[in-house]
Amino acid sequence: MKNKRILVMAAHPDDEVLGCGGTLLKHAKNNDEILLLFASDGESSRISGSKKISYRKKQACKVAKIINAQKPLFLNFPDNQLDKINILKIAKSFEKIIKKFQPNIIYTHHYNDLNIDHRLTFEATMIACRPLVDSSVKEIYCFEILSSTGWRGTDNLGFKPTVYVDIKDYIKKKIDLMKIYEKEIRPSPHPRSVESITAKAISRGSEVSLSYAESFELVRYIR
Quick one: pLDDT at residue 16? Predict the structure, then answer.
C-alpha cells in the first residue's frame, strides 16, 4: 500500500503526543510521511518573553525527529487567545499548508473541547478541509486531550470514540515522548500524569478488547 501523508493540526506543542502519540509512532513504523502543525505557541498565556516559547518549540522538534516527522510548522498565534484572531486568517494559514503538503489523513482536536484554542483549531481545520474536488484529505479524526476534552462536561456533544488504534507496542514510547515536555507532565492523580495517560490507554483499549489503545472520533472518511 502506498505510504500515507499524515498531518496533525494541533493547537499547542504536546497536544500531538497526548492526542495521538502512539498512533503517530505506528504511522512512522509504516513509513508514512508525518507533519506536525501547531497553531499557538503554547506558552504566552503563562509568561512574558520568548525564552520558554523557544524552548517549547525545541521540544516539539525533538518529538518530530523521534517519530521521523518533518520539521514542525509553528504559526505562532498567541496561546489561549485564538478567539481574538479572525477564524478566516487561521483557516487560510491552514489551507496553505494543506495545499503544499497534500495530506491524506488529518488528526485534530475535538469540536467541544474545553480549551478555546483546541475548539478553534478544529473549526479552522474544517474550513481548510472543505471536501472540494481536488482535496487530498480523505480522512479526518478528532483526538482527545487529557485534562481538557473530558473537562468540558457531559452534554451530548462530548467526545464519542468511534475509531480505536492498538498502541500496545507504543505505549512506553508515547510516555517517553510526553516526558520531553517535562513541564506539561503533572504528578498523579492529574490527568496528564504518567499514571493517568497509561490508565486512559488501558481504559480505551478495554472498550474494544485491546491492552492499550488511542481512540478517535471520526469526522470524515472518503473511500
Answer: 98
- Smallest CA-to-CA distance from 103 within 9, 208, 199, 215 is with 9
Stretches in the chain below the pLDDT threshold 70: 1, 45-50, 153-156
Q: Supply 203's cell numbers.
A: 481504559
3-class SS shares of the chain: helix, strand, coil, % to 5 = 40, 20, 40
Question: Please, are residues 142 and 32 in contact by the beta-carbon 8 Å criterion?
Answer: no
Q: What span, in angstroms and rounded, lies between the C-alpha atoms of 211 and 205?
A: 5
If one counts every other C-beta atom within 10 angstroms of the C-beta of residue 43, the result is 22
Claim: this prediction has a pTM higher than 0.85: yes
**CA dist., res. 141 & res. 160, Å (int):** 11
Give the span between the Cα atoms of 184 and 128, in whole angstroms. Answer: 29
Whether 217 and 162 have beta carbons less than 8 Å apart is answered as yes
Q: What is the pLDDT of residues 185-214, one digit of tens each?
A: 999 999 999 999 999 999 999 999 999 999
Q: How many residues does the chain have?
A: 223
Q: Which domains does the chain have, with CATH numbers?
A: 5-221 (3.40.50.10320)
**Dihedral angle at the C-alpha atoms of 120, 130, 17, 97, nearest 10 degrees?**
-100
CA quadruple 167, 171, 174, 179: dihedral, nearest 10 = 170
What one-character-per-residue DSSP string does 159-183 give?
A: ----EEEE-TTTHHHHHHHHHHSGG
